[in-house]
Amino acid sequence: MQSGKMKAVMKKHGAFGAVLAEVPIPEIDKHEVLIKVKAASICGTDVHIYNWDQWARQRIKTPCVFGHEFSGIVEAVGENVSSVKIGEYVSAETHIVCGTCVPCLTGKPHVCKNTAIIGVDTAGCFAEYVKVPAENVWKNPADMDPAIASIQEPLGNAVHTVLESQNAGGTTAIIGCGPIGLMAVAVAKAAGAAQVVAIDKNEYRLALAKQMGATTAVCIEKEDPLKIVSALTEGEGADLVCEMSGHPSAIAQGLAMAANGGRFHILSLPEHPVTIDLTNKVVFKGLTIQGITGRKMFTTWRQVSQLLGSNVLDLSPIITHQFPLEEFEKGFELMRSGQCGKVILIP
Ligand SMILES: [Zn+2]
Ligand SMILES: [Zn+2]
């Protein structure tokens, strides 16, 4: 068992930013696993915490170590743990579920009513060590790049969003090309979409979307995405629209560009309630709207593993920056600017 101190990126006070600190290495419980972090990735959620926006102020208790997307090596296991062994190379599902509520008991733990999130409700992975419950551990193949292994959790969001319905041979539109949107482009392509239309206002990210397999990239500052999707589909619209922007106007456009009988999958978290034209854009179109949260445990993780392991997906273009943990501020500034894909911190 480890004892002693480790370096970690901490939110010490309720204010903008974070600090590098020395904190005790987490002590594990009987059912937990201690992992030495090899790579940790900065998520949009971490940027909310860093910025200390309204959501973070309501949700996060300081002081805390944050971060939740990682890969690493098992350093110690609790006395009741038999499924995970010291030395194994792992990542982790970040939703800690109760196992006893009705959704958990009926095969839907991704919508557990008592979900706690690593790095939000528990100590996170922007540190040399992180602890997680043994049942959250996901084992990685030995040859997987630690940076790639660290982004399987957000890739799982993209996989869950895109593969919630089959759209081979159809047109998939991805609205919002942040890192998960970029991954969704690659997943849609891998899943056999005939056309993948990537929509954003950020040219840097649209160029990445092209690299990830988008057949059309639409910059909303210059072009009308509705006109372009209509032209690409002979006026029918996109069979599947994945909403990853959270912007009310983009959501309205997304509903408008969906084909009659099509699907609209929402992974984004709009800050405020959004008004939509249910009558004309949903009911009369026979649209199916699906909210997406987390990853199916562990169906999505298995899909992620197999898509990466078979080289159907190559996520390396998305990992645009890597920094030592100590230089976390550079990583957060890049994330805040939007001039990056995934940013990895190496403890
Ligand atoms: Zn995340
Ligand atoms: Zn539950």
Strand and helix layout:
Blueprint: E1 5-11, E2 19-24, E3 32-41, H1 44-51, H2 54-59, E4 64-65, E5 69-77, E6 89-92, E7 95-96, H3 102-105, E8 116-117, E9 129-133, E10 137-139, H4 146-150, H5 152-162, E11 171-175, H6 179-190, E12 195-200, H7 203-211, E13 216-219, H8 225-232, E14 238-243, H9 248-257, E15 258-266, H10 278-283, E16 288-291, H11 299-309, E17 319-324, H12 328-337, E18 342-346
Parallel strand pairs: 11-12, 11-14, 12-13, 14-15, 15-16, 17-18
Antiparallel strand pairs: 1-2, 1-4, 3-5, 3-9, 3-18, 5-6, 6-10, 7-8
Helix pairs in contact: 5-6, 5-11, 8-9
The structure holds zinc ion (2 copies).
One zinc ion is lined by residues 43, 45, 68-69, 153-154.
N-to-C series of helices and strands = EEEHHEEEEHEEEHHEHEHEHEHEHEHEHE
Strand content of the residues, in percent?
Answer: 25-35%
What is the molecular shape?
globular
Uncertain regions spanning at least 5 consecutive residues: none
- Mean residue pLDDT: 97
Which structural class matches the secondary elements?
alpha/beta
Number of helices: 12
Distance between the termini: 20 Å
Rg, Å, rounded: 20 Å
Please summarize the sheet with the most strands: 7 strands, mixed
Number of strands: 18
Helix content: 25-40%
- Ligand species: zinc ion
